Each structure stands twice: as C-alpha cells, then as structure tokens.
Amino acid sequence: MPYTILIFLTRHPSLTSEEFRNHWENVYIPLNKSLTGHLFPLLFKRHYFARIDRAGFGGAANRDRPALLLRGSVDDFDYDSMGEMTFDSEAAFREYYRVLYEPKAAALLAREEKYFLDTQKVIIVVVGDSTGSR
C-alpha cells in the first residue's frame, strides 16, 4: 500500500517566489536525491501556489503577493508550496527518513533549508486514507 507524506513550505523572507522555486528544484531536490539514492520517493510532486499582486494583503511571508485563495484567509495560509512524496510502503519511507537524519546528510540539508525556507513554518504530515472521484 503506498505511503504518502505532504510537506507545506514557506520560502525564506529574503527570497522571491522564483528564487525559492529555483533553489528547491535545482539545489535541494538534487542534493536530497544524491544523499538518498534508490531510497528517494517513487514520486515527489511539488505544487506551487498561485499568487496575485495586491500590495499589503498577504500574510507575513507574502505581504504583497498573497496566495490566490478561493476560500479562507491569507493570514491562515502563507505557504509557497506543497510537496507530495509517495513511497512503496511505510518501511520504505522509514529507511529514507533514517538516511536523511544521518549526521552528514542532516547537516547538508539543514544548511540548505536555512537558506531557502522559513524553517519555523515547515509542516510535514502523513496521509492516512485517500479517495478520489471522476
């Protein structure tokens, strides 16, 4: 049974949305892959939230470019992206996670995270059941 993890990220305040995306795609993900090798998720989707230009209406991290919310408050939703990692099983995820937290890997990833993320706002959650409709 697939095992899915969702990651909600807010960019570091010193970066633009474009710089954040570039760093996640072209620095952090390749580093993660190089550290985890065959343990890297079967699929790691990254979703970037649509933004509008509206000075002074966004949350703290995106004051002038709030997310294009259809419902809810920008004060409650200040994320720049969501990652969706899919593994074969919980055991596969646990092995991946173990490798990420070996001292050398953890130090390399933490250095990059401090550069491009607001690390205090990172949320990572395990998905239980999923259903779909067409």
Automatic annotation (TrEMBL):
List, for all copies, the residue spans of the domain called EthD.
12-119
Family per similarity comment: Belongs to the tpcK family.
Q: What domain of life does the UniProt record list for this protein's source?
A: Eukaryota
Checking SUPFAM superfamilies in the record gives: Dimeric alpha+beta barrel (SSF54909)
Q: Which residues form a coiled coil?
A: none
* UniProt name for this protein: EthD domain-containing protein
Q: One Pfam family from the UniProt entry?
A: EthD
GO terms, molecular function:
oxidoreductase activity
